[in-house]
Amino acid sequence: MILRRIHAGACSGWRSRSRVSWKQRLPFSSSVPSQPVPPLAQTLQEYLRALEPLLPAEELDHTRRMVQEFGRPGGLGARLQQGLEKRARHARNWITPWWVQWAYLEGRQPLPVHSSPAISLPRRDYNGWRNQLVFAAKLIAAVLDFKAKMSSGQLPVEYMRGRPLCMELYPLLFSSCRIPGPKHDSIAHYGRARRSPTHITVVRNYQFFQLEVYNSDGSRMTESQIHGQLLRIRAQSWKTDKEPMGILTSEHRHTWGQAYERLMRDKLNKESVQLIETGIFSLCLDSPVMRISDEKYASRKAAQILHGGGTFSNSGNRWFDKTLQFVVGEDGSWGLLYEQATAEGPPIATLLDHILDYCEKPDPKRAPLVPLPTPKKLYFHIDREIKRDIEHAKQNLDILINDLDVNVFNFKGFGKELPKRHELSPHSFIQVALELAYYRVHNELCPSCDIVSQRMFRGGRTEYVRSPTSRTFQFVLAFDDPSVGREAKLQLFREAVDAHAALTDRAFKGHGIERHLLGLKLQAIEDGLSIPKVFMDTAYGLATHWKLRTGQVPANTDSVMCFGPLVPDGYAVCYNPQADHVHFSIIAFNCCEETHAETLAVTLRDTLCQLQQLLQPTA
């Protein structure tokens, strides 16, 4: 594992493109504390507690002895803890550079499905390419308006539970790109350069274009100007036999890293690739897709944004390494795909809220009477090796897409107001419901990770909340037992929800266990030591085989996020709770005979309705 020490405020693997200091370009930097290193004894105790519902007694006893040996005073755990505490005193954030490097930049799986999340937005009220371009122009103007507010310090500091959040991720959304490598990737950010990029890239029919979005006097182009330029792009991008260069970015990272080196040897290719990488963001103008029933449309729409629908659809209209890619379809579908090394769900949700608000307003600016340069079409020289790379990428992406089982649905029985009325955390309510639904489908509990933000700390990213808890285990066993009365079930349910809420609260305060355990492991590697036995234990492997990967991404609109499972025999579940309904996406892999997204979705619907009856038996 390669862990490189770099300048403060940056993520490991970062390729800075300027010498402008970080603070000079952060006019809205919020005053947030450093992320704490949790006490070692506390983390080890919580780790053992998390294993209780997953391990038989004899295995738990074995692991308990191993953990106690690791955590004894003066032992290996204490030495590693001292290393983390020293690191925390001298680093902007003691875990984020390691986390970005370990979780993202050293990950070798393809970005689509396995890493990059997609957000599907409510369908727009139009059909056809003309209105597609009108809306796309509006969207581009909205994003540029958001970027202007961010750059001028007008973006208000966000708060969660009354605490200010770190805003450092926002500048990294624009003019950023992940760069593939044979062994590990890096991140290039061009927005801090003295002359920041003034273009976006637009891709249609697999063909990329450089579109300048600022006038020569530095003013942002108006919607009508942008729309005129998009018309020019459409006129230049009729379906041809052009190779879908974007498909290369969907490959296994090792394979793409090698192909990238071959691609960049050619001067023309290098120029075109760099224009894509340096662009403020990308816009994907997708062609029409096969019509489908209303019942399955939401799932198809989300999948289209997530991966483009395959090599015979719109997957060639992506550059998966790009941090921000907006997707606009001819049928009114639209959404956003983002690369996680520099972006997280909540800042993306804030950006989307701004776009939706902006789209309700008329164009505030008149177009100046100045001639505009024709958008520049990007060309590639494709030799026999690159052609072979593209063909392999096509095959592999289609295999991945065909293996994907996507189910997106809107649960209309109730929303977050129901748990609130009963003084229960809506988020933890849904988490316990998911555990119960999983148990009903598979007749077992499984290791689950729920993603929570750490942006209340400087440079913070995310933490996992482990579940199920012992309280959840007791409730799940009791719920379908006819010998257990309603009042007892209700009490167990409340205790399970409250236990999960307590874990979430602890994680928000910087006392989650998952990043701390990872830090201890990586500290041992950095110190040149063997990986501690506690991390080689069967129990640790079982407990980190996340069969249920979940995430709540609340938004002010009926959007839904989707991403792939972390393990072949697992699920990924994302949800957006509204006042009276909840949007869900459930994804599994077809290669696993035991997992089935629709079965879990149907079971989850029934489970939520039964939990409503448990709370309100007369409803």
Mean pLDDT: 92
Count helical runs: 19
Can you give the helix content as a percent range?
A: 40-55%
> At the first level of CATH, what is the class of the largest domain?
Alpha Beta
The total tally of domains equals: 2
Summary?
The protein is an alpha/beta fold. It has 19 helices and 19 strands.
Describe this structure in words.
- By secondary structure, the protein is α/β, with parallel strands linked by helices.
- It folds into 2 domains: 110-402, Choline/Carnitine o-acyltransferase, domain 2 (Chloramphenicol Acetyltransferase, 2-Layer Sandwich); 405-512 and 545-615, 2-Layer Sandwich (Chloramphenicol Acetyltransferase).
- Helix content is 42%, strand content 15%.
- The protein contains 19 helices and 19 strands.
- It has helices spanning 40-51, 57-71, 76-90, 96-105, 129-151, 223-236, 253-263, 267-278, 294-307, 345-359, 384-402, 417-421, 426-442, 470-479, 486-508, 514-526, 533-536, 538-543, 597-615; strands spanning 14-16, 118-121, 159-160, 163-164, 176-179, 186-189, 199-204, 207-212, 282-286, 324-329, 334-338, 376-377, 404-411, 448-453, 462-467, 548-552, 560-562, 571-577, 582-589.
- A hairpin with an 8-residue loop joins strand 14 and strand 15 (462-467).
- The longest helix has 23 residues, at 129-151.
- It is globular and about 75 Å long.
- The protein starts with 13 loop residues before the first strand and ends with a helix.
- The relative contact order is 0.15.
- The model is unreliable at 1-29 (pLDDT under 50).
